[in-house]
Amino acid sequence: MKCRRLIFSRNLAANEIQNALDVSKSELGDDYLTEKNFLETINSQSAFCKVVTYNRQFAGFAMCQVFGPEKIDEVLRLPDSPEKKDLLSKGKIGLLDSIAVRKDMQNNGMGIELSEACLKEFEARGVDTVCAMAWKNTGGEINIEGILRRMGMKSGPEIPGYWNYMVDSPGGHDCPVCGRPCKCSAVFYGRDV
Predict the structure, then answer these.
(1) What distance in Å separates the CA atoms of residue 72 and residue 134, rounded to the nearest whole number?
(2) What average pLDDT does range 54-82 have in this prediction?
(3) Domain with 110 in it
(4) How does 14-44 read in b/e, with b if 16+ C-beta sit within 10 Å?
(5) Structure pTM?
(6) Does 2 reside within a domain?
(7) Phi and psi, residue 110, nearest 5°
(8) Which residue, of 62, 101, 137, 140, has the fewest CB within 10 Å?
(9) Residue 1: inside a domain, yes or no?
């Protein structure tokens, strides 16, 4: 008899921060997130971090923020666009900030499980709209495009060099795909809840 593999998502626990950091460094770069970033999500009113386990092993995480329109420039740094104008009219914005799954556990539904858990949390926190800044590598691939489209999100402006000014590292972001400085772009995705 074949056993069904079990996937579970829940909130990040303090004793899992090192696991989350390891996944972050591997998938997003050494300088993208810190221990402090993960600690700040625990019991926060404005941020949260969901984790997913696969057969009882830590598989990945999704870090999110909830903020008002007054913080759009600080948090998203979007250029003037119809999408930015729309966000400015919202009460609460949910940002799917980072989703990362261990390479050896990708393509098994972990990203979908994380995104669904985040949507439920956003709804519980009363957000009006959900958005994400997806990573578009130099080959033109968008890292979580399939998940974002499955969530009903639509793409907006592409911002070249975005990660170099979002990650505070001398010489620019140390991208796991193209090195330092990062030559990748960001693509905005969003939808109302």
Answers:
(1) 16
(2) 94
(3) 7-192
(4) eebbebbbebbbebbbbbbbeeebbeebeee
(5) 0.92
(6) no
(7) -65, -45
(8) 140
(9) no
For 150-154, the CB contacts below 8 A with 24+ separation are 150/112, 150/115, 151/115, 151/119, 151/191, 152/191, 153/189, 153/190, 153/191, 154/189, 154/190, 154/191
Q: How many C-alpha atoms does 130 have within 13 Å on its Cβ side?
A: 23
Q: How far is CA 73 from the centre of its chain?
A: 18
Split into its structural domains, the chain has a count of 1
Q: Give CA separation, 93 vs 1, 20, 36, 72, 172, in Å.
A: 46, 24, 22, 9, 27
Q: Which residue has the higher pLDDT, 4 or 113?
A: 113
- Helix residue ranges, H only, the chain: 17-28, 35-39, 72-75, 82-88, 110-124, 145-150, 162-166
Residue 16, in any domain of the structure: yes
Cβ count within 10 A of residue 63: 25
Beta-sheet strand order (sheet of 154-160): 7-11, 47-54, 57-67, 93-101, 129-136, 185-192, 154-160
Pairwise pLDDT comparison (18 vs 168), residue with the higher score: 18
Cα-based torsion angle of the residue sequence 51, 55, 59, 62 in order, rounded to the nearest 10 degrees: -20
Burial 140-176 (b: 16+ CB within 10 A, else e): eebbbbebbeebebebbeebeebbbebbebeebbbbb
Here the CATH number for the domain that contains residue 62 is 3.40.630.30
